[in-house]
Specification:
The chain is of the alpha+beta class. It is built from ten helices and six strands; from the N terminus they run αββαααααβααβαββα. A four-stranded antiparallel beta sheet has the order 4-3-6-5. A hairpin with a 2-residue loop joins β5 and β6. α2 crosses α4. GO terms for molecular function: peptidyl-prolyl cis-trans isomerase activity. Keywords: Isomerase, Rotamase.
């Protein structure tokens, strides 16, 4: 069971941009008017850095890709996992071309750019410093205590013999389309290929693979059909609120409740988020903080004498 859901935020690119970058990777040559390698600042990199790609002589390293992934986490959720590297390489390539062109035009010294650089420097310093401060506030003993106090008792209530299944599906809009899918599969066509071709679901890029899941993690008609299948079995069309599914069972297994070691990082992240919020409050109340202009409270104030719900 997923006890904690960590929410990450990032820039959400338009769907069209995602599609264009995946479908039309850079690096096929051609002039864009963005200058040549000699027009930009030095493209020096760490001698040990792993080179992932290059654009017009400028190297794209794994560190570049990792930073782009952090900045575009939610965007990546719209891209098939197998194409993450290509998508991120495109983003970094565009960034490097644009930055080189901007430097060539002298924008690096403009007031607007310098102001944004100063802001980003402050933000990076903040992120690193806050992370260090918050990390120091959450000890391994506190993580263990949270597990023992809140998580372990809940796990103890669960049945140790919990069944999960792994399944693939092809999602289409109508029953007729689903029946056609079944016919094509029974005629010998490959499920993975058909999922990539026809499925409307986000798992299409993975050949329809949904990974392992518990019965309660899917809508009931889907779960009932998936859990009733034999290994390798193919379902009849199944209707849910999302459309019509054709399901193939890949595997089933019995899993035990997760251990402390398996959950410790999630618990730590949860506790660190709580500490981060408290630390922010401490900073704002410790120092002389004045807001000029609109002084509306961020949250409504409640009368302590008024109950929040009927008692």
């Amino acid at each position: 069971m997923r006890l904690f859901i960590l929410i990450f935020t990032g820039f959400i690119a338009p769907i069209l941009l995602v599609a264009l970058l995946v479908a039309n990777p850079l690096g096929s040559g051609g002039s864009t008017g963005l200058g040549t390698a000699s027009d930009t600042a030095s493209n020096e990199i760490d001698a040990n850095a792993k080179i992932i790609a290059s654009i017009d002589g400028m190297k794209i390293t794994q560190n570049d890709i990792d930073r782009a992934a952090e900045d575009n986490f939610e965007t990546l959720m719209q891209v098939p996992e197998a194409q993450h590297q290509l998508f991120l390489s495109n983003l970094v390539a565009i960034q490097k071309l644009a930055a080189r062109a901007a430097l060539k035009e002298g924008l690096g010294q403009s007031e607007a750019v310098q102001q944004r650089i100063a802001y980003q420097k402050e933000r990076i310093l903040q992120d690193v410093w806050i992370a260090e401060q918050v990390n120091a506030r959450v000890s391994e003993a506190e993580v263990r205590a949270y597990f023992d106090t809140y998580v372990a008792p809940e796990l103890a209530k669960q049945n140790n013999d919990v069944e999960e299944v792994q399944a693939r599906h092809i999602l289409v809009a109508t029953k007729a389309e689903a029946e056609t899918v079944v016919q094509r599969l029974q005629a010998g066509e490959d499920f993975v290929d058909l999922a990539a071709e026809l499925s409307l679901g986000p798992s299409a890029g993975r050949g329809g693979d949904l990974g392992y899941f518990l019965a309660e993690e899917m809508v009931k008609p889907f779960s009932d059909a998936a859990f009733a299948l034999q290994m390798g079995g193919l379902s009849a069309p199944v209707e849910t609120e999302f459309g019509w599914h054709v399901i193939r069972l890949e595997d089933r297994r019995i899993v035990s409740p997760p251990s402390f070691e398996e959950l410790s990082e999630q618990i730590r992240a949860f506790l660190e988020q709580q500490e981060r919020n408290l630390f922010f409050d401490e900073l704002l109340t410790t120092y002389d903080f004045q807001v000029y202009g609109d002084t509306s409270p961020l949250m409504p104030e409640f009368d302590d004498d008024v109950p929040l719900k009927d008692e």
